[in-house]
Amino acid sequence: MNIEVVVCTKDRPEKLEACVPRFKEQIPFDTFTVYEGSKFPSKDVIEKLEPLGVNFQYVHGKLFGAVRKAALVNSQADYVAMVDDDIFLSKDWFKGLMREFKDPDVVAVSSRLIYTGHPVLESLYKGNTRTSGGSGGAAIYKRKAIVDLGNFSDEIHRGEDMELELRIQAAGKKWRKSQSVYALHPVESLREFLQRPKANVVGWNYIMRYSQHKWRFIGKRVASTFLMPIYYFWKTGDPRTAAVWFIYKWRALSSFLSGEYER
Fold it and tell me: What is the pTM of this model?
């Protein structure tokens, strides 16, 4: 079994320099590749990391979907562990995700993704016990299976994981979310977190225009906005988690419907 670690990064040399040693220690690998999207990559960081066996691919100007697609096309590995530079992995993250591939229909696995930086956010995301819902920034892919299913779309900047998951499900395959391990995603503040939807919904436009599964997609978004706050209140007992979830999802939905989002 051959494993490649792929780190996607842009304009965050300090995060890149810090994350590579972490991931090299936490994930067994045969090759390690950084997809660097910065216009002016840090020469100092590159000079520090290349002697450690890190390969660099320079992808300035490419959309997230195109970068993830290229990472899978360029790889020769059986499995690709793709992790963004601002992610912190829990102990045994790799083992926990790989166990899910015992199901032959599983072609991609993510872990729980817990946003940190505010106690309400942590409580909210720790309360998410769903086993579906892919996150492209901390996942392992069965490479050939994903490529055969059409791979990531190179026309989506954000939401590329949601669009791919729709096609995986339509093909009768699974993108599993493991509950046995987790990844931490720090944010500066609750306010910064609630600003994220305006950037995150940019991929919705592509899905609604071109996807054959758009009504399933929009149905899930509506249900998530109006039903999931009840679920999170039940799971956490804290009405603030329900309020934060509703505000976050409502901002995403209203930003898309009004067209007022980052393109």
Answer: 0.90
